[in-house]
Amino acid sequence: MRTGFEVRKVTYLLPRSLVTNLADGAQVPSGTATELRGIAMGGNAGVKAVDYSLDGGKSWQAATLGEDHGKYSFRQWTANVTFPDKGEVGVMVRATNDNGVAQPLQRTWNPRGYMWSSVETRKLQVV
């Protein structure tokens, strides 16, 4: 089948992480610890680390990893975060696998979406 664009086989997946306990637009209190929870996968390797950023990716803090269930499994993570200022804040989360490959900041496009694993930003309202 001719597609009009370069076709490549998917031979591996990139690391990916998600915030699972707070929806986009959720309200969180200022000055009080808020728990962030989520899951991560390492793609073709286990999950070595999950980090989060509150400043658009300028700095990253380590999240606490849950039990490692093996190379191809999801791994839970948590972080207790205190938001000092009221207003909107973007929470970015990225996974790094055992091979040292980090979740990309930019999306890697492909026609079926298999490599849709870039760092996403969850927008929260600090009240």
UniProtKB/TrEMBL annotation:
Protein name stated in the entry: Moybdenum cofactor oxidoreductase dimerisation domain-containing protein
InterPro entries listed in its UniProt record: Ig_E-set (IPR014756), MoCF_OxRdtse_dimer (IPR005066)
Domain Moybdenum cofactor oxidoreductase dimerisation: 16-115
Domain of life: Bacteria
PANTHER family referenced in this protein's UniProt entry, alphabetically: SULFITE OXIDASE, MITOCHONDRIAL, SULFITE REDUCTASE
